[in-house]
Amino acid sequence: MTVLLGCIADDFTGGTDLAGMLVKAGMRTVQLIGVPTEPIADDVDAVVIALKSRTSPVDQAVSESLAALRWLQSAGCKQIYFKYCSTFDSTPRGNIGPVTEALMTALGAEFTIACPAFPANGRTIYKGYLFVGEMLLSESGMRNHPLTPMTDSNLVRVMQQQTERKVGLVDSAVVDQGAAAIGERIAGLRERGYGLAIVDALSDVHLESIGAACADMPLITGGSGIALGLPENFRRRGLLSRTVAADVLAATGGLRAVISGSCSVATQRQVALMRASFPAFKIDPLLLARGEDLVSAALDWAGGRIGKQPVLIYATATPETVKQAQLELGAEQAGGLVENALAEIAKGLVRLGVGQMIVAGGETSGAVVNALGIKGLRIGPEIDPGVPWTTTLPHDASVQPLALALKSGNFGSEDFFLKAWDKLQ
Ligand SMILES: Nc1ncnc2c1ncn2[C@@H]1O[C@H](COP(=O)(O)OP(=O)(O)O)[C@@H](O)[C@H]1O
Ligand SMILES: O=C(O)[C@@H](O)C(=O)COP(=O)(O)O
């Protein structure tokens, strides 16, 4: 088996976002949860190893990323991709800079790019400044993120704080001119001692040009956007088929459920719409803290209702309600209580016969995937930009695959929880 592209993602939903982009562009892709201990299937063009390293201590993020790199190198990968968030989520110390630097050193890479742009989801970069929709990153909701508040939109500055290597810029005027011009600018930067460049991108055409310009780089770093242009590089070299369908999943069946622990604006709208016409059960961290057995209550409730239509179990709440819970319990304890409860509920739902499940929220997805003991996911068709359907890789041939959609808090249209099922066979 030779895997063409090896990817390291700093969280689980970010991993499926990237994997979905690769599948959309024609690469058969699996996402592995952590560094695998067992061999993977032969029919795979790209592997994403999903870590939970976005906010872990720098040393831990670096050592886990290097362990992932070693596995990807042993699988024969021709190029390595480090995936982080399209809003460049990181603390001033890292982990984007230190992990990038460690991967560059291990790969002997003298230069790489950093490009979190994802225009389809409103993340664009202009003159090195990251925009979220109409707003600068530092004016968006990300300025209040509990773990990685982003208060500077200038990515050259942000990245330079996190790395010893000199950080430059490939601006949109150059990117507009296409791959050859980007390559020339990069060569110029390298001559002047730069080791990294933030690359502007405002459109998918830009992403494709950037992908083409990076064909020979041992390491690429970014959000999922620039993955759009990479498969074509492998096709041009005759390494990737133009005809094999990449998004085919094993058939799944069973009951349907949505679990939501995300309190992001997009998820709040999605939960409100689903609650209006489907059975819904709310998880309140304050009741959990008082020792109420909401896991059994939710499963008893679901057992009586779940059938032809999906059910929703959610902790999603407004910022005021979340703040109140955090004041009483502490942010970490409130989050942990909810994550544990939702993960136990996910296990119970599978026992009840759920075979198709949507999970909303990055941390929530991590908790659910770990509780279900999932080792890997085969990536299928896109539901909305950044969110594909996946099916669990069988760890035992007798176990039916589970269809899972791991939705980043900020992704997906308002009717995401209603329409997603139509994309399953
Ligand atoms: N009602 C609530 N009160 C306090 N914390 C909550 C509540 N609902 C969810 N949470 C916590 O908020 C965090 C949401 O993070 P996450 O799942 O990553 O979503 P997103 O992708 O939107 O950031 C989780 O730790 C979750 O347990
Ligand atoms: O690049 C992105 O925006 C996403 O793939 C991502 O990483 C989102 O993280 P969460 O919001 O924590 O799910």
From TrEMBL:
Gene3D superfamilies according to UniProt: Four-carbon acid sugar kinase, nucleotide binding domain, Putative sugar-binding, N-terminal domain
All copies of domain Four-carbon acid sugar kinase nucleotide binding, residue ranges: 257-417
Keyword ATP-binding: yes
Pfam family, one: NBD_C
Listed GO MF terms: ATP binding; kinase activity
Matches recorded under NCBIfam families: OxoTetrKin
Function: Catalyzes the ATP-dependent phosphorylation of 3-oxo-tetronate to 3-oxo-tetronate 4-phosphate.
Protein name in the entry: 3-oxo-tetronate kinase
